[in-house]
Amino acid sequence: MAKRSHSSGPGRSHRTLRVGEAIRRRLSEILTRGEIHDPDLTAMSITVGEVRVSPDLRVATAFILPLGGKDAEEALLALRRNKGEIRHHMGKALGIKHTPEMRFALDDTFDRMDATRRMFADERVQRDLHKSDDEEE
């Protein structure tokens, strides 16, 4: 199965994007304010890069990254351990009929950007790019 990009793609409606952004903002607030009663989680600084919601609004996947990228697996475990409490907070804030099931995954956006930069820095790629530029002139 091909891995999809975090950006909006086919099948993502305005509604799913709006709900995803509302969940992202609220989850960020919850984590910043330490509203979850777990000392492991409140000790971490976690960034919520994006929340992708399924078309039926039943599942919301939050793409997270701890500050500095350290203790990523521990952050995922803490979030997964507290997903019921997080979902409860979401239900109160969202005002939609059914609160989506919360899932958590590491946000690999920065890793993919670094890999792309490394690829473009490769001398063979640079040579091909310059060759294309010369052909256009």
Keywords:
single chain, 137 residues, alpha+beta, GMP Synthetase, Chain A, domain 3, 2 domains, three-stranded mixed β-sheet, 6 helices, 3 strands, 16% strand, flat, disordered N terminus, RbfA, ribosomal small subunit binding, Ribosome-bd_factorA_CS
Give the CATH H-level superfamily of the largest domain: K homology (KH) domain
Which class do the helix and strand fractions yield?
alpha+beta
Task: Provide mean pLDDT, rounded.
Answer: 82
Strand order of the largest sheet: 1-2-3
The helical percent reads: 40-55%
Distance between the termini: 41 Å
With helices defined by DSSP (H or I, 4 residues minimum), what is the helix count? 6
Tell me the fraction of residues in β-strands, as a range: 15-25%
Mind explaining what this structure looks like?
It contains 6 helices and 3 strands. The protein has 137 residues and is of the alpha+beta class. It has 2 domains: 14-106, K homology (KH) domain (GMP Synthetase, Chain A, domain 3), CATH 3.30.300.20; 109-137. A 3-stranded mixed β-sheet has the order 1-2-3. Strand 1 and strand 2 (59-66) form a beta hairpin. Helix 1 (14-33) crosses helix 4. It is flat and about 60 Å long. The termini are far apart. 20% of the residues are buried.
